[in-house]
Design goal:
Oligomer: single chain
Number of helices: 8
Distance between the termini: 48 Å
Shape: globular
Number of strands: 16
Radius of gyration: 21 Å
Largest sheet: 5 strands, antiparallel
Helix content: 25-40%
Strand order of the largest sheet: 1-2-3-7-4
Strand content: 15-25%
Order of helices and strands: EEEHEEEEHHEEHHEHEHEEEEEH
Structural class: alpha+beta
Length: 362
């Protein structure tokens, strides 16, 4: 299986399956001398882990990361950072009924056809449990680019949306973390939570949208041809399980207005009066806020009977079992932020190569 490495200069390679002994990864290219805040790393993992509220899966995993290399006296050494996270609460028998059955809209079918074999226990490598590794790497990347702030929140669940710009919201950690759906608008959050509970009681699932905002980003991040900043962010977001769409700046709404309405006119200091560009022009950051939205589908495994096929082509009725998220959004927040941080950390490394400076002798 290819495609287990993300990044160019700041790279993370992940391994492991949902119901295996452990998941883990290797971070390569991290500069030496970063003093790590391990509480912050665990905090990010706690935001992603299952069992944290009644509207997510009740699998009980501590998700405690163990670092194996690349760190000494709480600082990165510049060598590869190896880490593992052990699985503690996997109930593989819950998936025995699908060992020869394909769940509709799941990767069961494509994995088996591609590889001739699949780990049906929790989806194996296709499980979103793999994203624990991304969160560890992303938490370290955040500490590399600590002057840049990355904030994500749930902006819609189904047809329930915050009808406000991110600029009108309190995007502090306290505001976003004060409710289990991680929506900074209290009234809207209550409606979202009720909707998810309703869907869960029916044995169904629901999707929605996460908005991400990047502040304090310097001008010049991104490469102008094949590695445009928005292209790499889009690739990162679309690599997350259940993501079906990505738009930045004005997105699809920008198609409904003219160029004279869409252009962001300059101020004398180089900032712009509006920001329909979403902080990126020509694939390069212009110093304004970068903001984008990510669409998540309802997850495929539902607790209702559906008609499907088995590996022999027979039609059968199947019903999901086990512990699953009725809505992935609240647990996806730290994943979105981690993938964003990995992209920016990679580009931060690129900036060190963009301009020539002579080596001075001491």
């Amino acid at each position: 299986m290819a495609g287990n490495i993300f990044g160019n200069l700041f790279r993370v390679s992940t391994f492991g399956e949902s119901h295996g002994i452990a998941l883990g990864g290797i971070i390569d290219g991290c500069p030496a001398g970063i003093e790590l805040n391990f509480k912050e790393i665990q905090y990010e993992l706690n935001r992603r882990k299952p069992g944290q509220s009644s509207i997510v899966t009740q699998r009980n995993e501590p998700d405690e990361v163990i670092f194996l290399s690349g760190i000494f006296d709480n600082k990165t050494t510049g060598t590869p950072i190896g880490f593992v996270i052990y699985n503690k609460d996997h109930k593989s028998y819950d998936y025995h009924h699908i060992r020869e059955v394909y769940r509709p809209s799941h990767s069961d079918f494509t994995y088996e056809k591609k590889y001739g074999i699949r780990d049906y226990r929790g989806g194996g490598r296709s499980s979103a449990r793999e994203t624990t590794c991304r969160v560890v790497a992303g938490a370290i990347a955040k500490q590399l680019i600590k002057d840049i702030t990355i904030t994500s929140y749930v902006s819609s669940v189904g047809n329930i949306s915050i009808n406000k710009s991110y600029k009108e919201l309190d995007l502090s950690r306290e505001s976003i973390e004060k409710n289990p759906i991680r929506c900074p608008d209290t009234n809207t959050a209550e409606k979202m939570i009720s909707k998810i509970q309703e869907i869960k009681n029916k044995g169904d699932t629901i999707g929605g949208i996460i908005t991400c905002v990047i502040k304090n980003i310097p001008i010049g991040i991104g490469e102008p041809v094949f590695e445009k900043l928005h292209a790499e962010l889009g690739k990162a977001m679309l690599s997350i399980n259940a993501v079906k769409g990505f738009e930045y700046g004005s997105g699809f709404d920008g198609t409904k207005i003219t160029g004279s309405q869409h252009n962001d006119l300059f101020k004398q200091d180089g900032t712009t009066k509006t920001n329909l560009s979403g902080g990126i022009q020509g694939g390069i950051s212009n110093g304004m806020d970068i903001y984008f939205r990510i669409a998540f589908k309802p997850i495929a495994t539902i607790m209702q009977k559906q008609k499907t096929i088995d590996k022999y082509g027979n039609f059968i009725l199947m019903k999901g079992k086990g512990r699953h998220d009725p809505c992935v959004l609240p647990r996806a927040i730290p994943i979105v932020e981690s993938m964003t941080a990995l992209v920016l950390a990679d580009y931060w490394m690129y900036t060190k190569l963009s301009k020539y400076s002579s080596i001075k002798k001491n």
